[in-house]
Amino acid sequence: MTPQEILREKGLKNTELRRRVLSLLLEKQDPLSHVEIFEELASAGQALDRVTLYRTLSAFSEARIVHKVQGTDGTVRFRLLRASSGDGCLGNHPHFLCRKCGRMSCLLEQPLPRVDVPAGSVVEGKQLLVFGLCGDCAANKKTEETVL
Ligand SMILES: [Zn+2]
Ligand SMILES: [Zn+2]
């Protein structure tokens, strides 16, 4: 689906900013924070302000175009909810968060552990976050240590 098609299907106003945000999320596989999205678009020459971007992401979230994933760092990240799998980032896979560079990755195709909930409870989603250093940051850390 193209950004235009997604906006049309959800009955949302088709603006340049909305199309740009959707193209970025279509292109990236991993959840991006508000700041990461802002920086990517700003460096691509898009004129935008943080409040408008925040509203755009909230509108996408309400329309269930994106899923929000919250890290242990308190930052909310957004990922496109894929029409093909319908899983988005809630309930179906764990995430890895690098505490140094803040990059989050979806660990797709990996099952979440089964959890027994209190009798009568209704589960609406599951989240599992694994955190530490990503490959790049772990490699840099080793170089830094060698230099010291
Ligand atoms: Zn995910
Ligand atoms: Zn990292």
Query: What is the CATH architecture assignment?
Result: Orthogonal Bundle
Low-confidence stretches: none
Strand content: 15-25%
The count of DSSP E runs of length 2 or more, i.e. the number of strands, is 6
Terminal CA distance: 50 Å
CATH topology-level fold name: Arc Repressor Mutant, subunit A
- Helical fraction: 25-40%
What would the principal axes of the Cα set say about the shape?
Answer: flat
Which molecules are bound besides the chains? zinc ion
> SSE string, helix = H, strand = E?
HHEHHEEEEEH
> At the fourth CATH level, what is the homologous superfamily?
Winged helix-like DNA-binding domain superfamily/Winged helix DNA-binding domain
Judged by helices, strands and strand pairing, the structural class is alpha+beta
User: DSSP helix count?
Assistant: 5
Question: What does this molecule look like?
Answer:
This protein is an alpha+beta fold. It has a single domain, classed as Winged helix-like DNA-binding domain superfamily/Winged helix DNA-binding domain (Arc Repressor Mutant, subunit A, Orthogonal Bundle), CATH 1.10.10.10. Helices cover 38% and strands 16% of the residues. It is built from five helices and six strands, in the order ααβααβββββα. The strands form two sheets. A three-stranded antiparallel beta sheet has the order 1-3-2. Helix 1 crosses helix 2. It is flat. The termini are far apart. The model has no long low-confidence stretch (mean pLDDT 86). The structure holds zinc ion (2 copies). The site of one zinc ion has 7 residues, from loops. The site of one zinc ion (ZN) has 7 residues, from loops.
